[in-house]
């Protein structure tokens, strides 16, 4: 996928936004060609230098940017020249999807293997052991705790896991 196409994809835009947040999004959404300093980016995008640096380091931590250090011979100051590595985005997204799949599978197992009780007034959910400790009364308001049917939640997780299996080409029966 071409560099420009990556940035137009709403999924990738959301991924970048989740990584760098609203203040860092201008940095992530407008990567220059070649190397650039953080000061040049801050000036070009009219952003605070700390916001630019924060976004660059987050991109770096996620293998989406790299840097090269240069030392000024006269002053000894270090200059960081940044390069954006957005070719790694599809691989990063796939890793995120696998993490989501594993977490969702674990959560679904938890939901299936536990009994829950709900305070309908406070909307607080308790596991059976907690509900029993409180005498099946809400510790906040004193209302009786009602047995909670979480089948819809488990079924939604099933649907989401199926969709992720299709997306990731996972054979669930293997």
Automatic annotation (TrEMBL):
One of its GO terms (biological process) is regulation of DNA-templated transcription. SUPFAM superfamilies: Winged helix' DNA-binding domain. GO terms for molecular function: DNA binding. The keyword Transcription applies. It comes from the Archaea. The keyword Repeat does not apply. Residues 8-90 form the HTH TFE/IIEalpha-type domain. Coiled coil: none annotated. Pfam families: TFIIE_alpha. InterPro entries: TF_E_archaea, TFE, TFIIE/TFIIEa_HTH, TFIIE_asu, TFIIEa/SarR/Rpc3_HTH_dom, WH-like_DNA-bd_sf, WH_DNA-bd_sf. Belongs to the TFE family. Transcription factor that plays a role in the activation of archaeal genes transcribed by RNA polymerase. Facilitates transcription initiation by enhancing TATA-box recognition by TATA-box-binding protein (Tbp), and transcription factor B (Tfb) and RNA polymerase recruitment. Not absolutely required for transcription in vitro, but particularly important in cases where Tbp or Tfb function is not optimal. It dynamically alters the nucleic acid-binding properties of RNA polymerases by stabilizing the initiation complex and destabilizing elongation complexes. The winged helix domain is involved in binding to DNA in the preinitiation complex. Monomer. Interaction with RNA polymerase subunits RpoF and RpoE is necessary for Tfe stimulatory transcription activity. Able to interact with Tbp and RNA polymerase in the absence of DNA promoter. Interacts both with the preinitiation and elongation complexes. This is Transcription factor E. It comes from Natronorubrum bangense JCM 10635.
